[in-house]
Amino acid sequence: MNSDATQVCVVGAGAAGLYAALSATRLGARVTLVSATPLAGSSSYWAQGGLAAALSAEDSPELHLRDTVAAGRGMVRLSAAKILCDEAPAAVEDLASLGVRFDADRRGRLALGLEGGHSVRRIVHAGGAATGRRLIRQLSALVAQDDRAEVLEGRRVTAVLGAEGRATGVRLEDGAGITSAAVILATGGAAALWARTTNPPGAIGGGLLLAYHARAALADLEMMQFHPTAVVAPDGADGFLVTEAVRGEGALLLDAGGDRFVDELAPRDEVARAVQRRMIETRSDSVALDMRDVDPALFPNVVTALRSAGIDPEREPVPVAPAAHYMMGGIATDLYGRATLHGLYAVGECSCTGLHGANRLASNSLSECFVFGARAARAAVGEPPPGHPAGDRDRSGRDPLAEPPPSPSPPSREALWRQAGLERSGDGLRALMDDPYPLVRLIAACGLVRTESRGAHRRVDYPATDPALDGRHARVLEGADPALERWD
Ligand code: SIN
Q1: Which ranges of 226-363 does DSSP label H, i.e. alpha helix?
Q2: What separation in Å is there between the alpha carbon of 324 and the centre of ligand 1?
Q3: Ligand 1 test: best mutation among 241, 247, 268, 275, most atoms within 8 Å of CB?
Q4: Where are the alpha helices (DSSP H) in 282-409?
Q5: Which residue segments constitute the domains of the chain, with CATH numbers given?
Q6: What average pLDDT does range 53-69 have in this prediction?
Q7: Protein residues with CB under 6 Å of any ligand 1 atom
Q8: Using one digit for the tens of pLDDT, what is the confidence trace for 295-311?
């Protein structure tokens, strides 16, 4: 296929990008999928969590919505969360029809797991904690075989191009342009900007900067979710995520004295903060995750990874501590993934529909990739063809070729961990405003405007939640300070 004929250009080949691409080709569109990594090399590949969906007899979308809203600490955009909870069961069904094999119980029904903040079992997995791997393999294979999809692997997008107030395509690192009626960014999150993270090194928010420089709004960048149980180890295993699902199967969190100190299945912000507090109180760099009573057959890849790091979870507790894990903020979108620039869309972790509020409910994010990936594809295929081919200039008028995308330095990552970690202060956030990496400055700016503590954002100088900020999102545009606004 000639990329000149592209109707939809999808950037990123994680769960959201692959599914958006497949959804668009199934609607008859021609798609170019650009991926910086080889197919099946995205962050989603490593996802251990599953898909949250109300599938059991004792569950309902209403109950799922109630849990999502409770976890989100007064900041969930109800319209988006309702769509997620209503449409997640059909997304699971569709994935199964596409050949994804989800785990079943002995009677052949979907096996449903439990994670923090869920009032009933509703997490669907594939291959235990190998859900991401199974999904990405299957969806990558389908995209690779799809005549309507052209896949550009190992290619990096350096700019969203535009004309007459709308996106018209993207420019690649080598200067080539792709013209398309719609651009869907599915570039993943930004947790690897923090020095301690569960994410692979590429998760530095590149897509957020592409959108920002195209003059699309970003939102809620202060809302980084910290996962409570990332392994503390001296070598390459440091930061390895031990899925929350092990706590759903009975694993316990214990302090240095062997005592429990938190409800292991409370929402994630609460558990992460309790772990951090207990580490400070006991002057320890970790707490213990005791999964000795958990059936190792349920989590074969977790057990194997821990063993290869020299930890035998069947015999000894696993040292864990919080790490940056998931960006709840991102490119501000409507309920069809539309960014604030016409023709530009965002789905998956790089997007911010507002559905996660200030604290994402575990495993809502994979469901979001499919529910909103399909919705964005439906809207994108209806975009009119661009009047102009992709131009030489990005939307801000700069020559993108003159500005290779910057990378955060180790000192920026250390500074973000120190000043915008589980606890922040106005002084620390202001210190980040001089950081050379633009996204660090934007995260700090959003953190400064939110003068309260809520969910993942804990300010020591504003320890209380301000009810006046319920439902308000920090929106930031190039050339303007962030402002808090209400989303319907
Ligand atoms: C986990 O399995 O604990 C992580 C998945 C998620 O972030 O929802």
Answers
A1: 245-248, 268-281, 300-308
A2: 12
A3: 241
A4: 300-308, 364-380
A5: 8-223+328-380 (3.50.50.60), 229-323 (3.90.700.10), 410-473 (1.20.58.100)
A6: 98
A7: 48-49, 243-245, 326, 362-363, 365
A8: 999 898 899 999 999 99
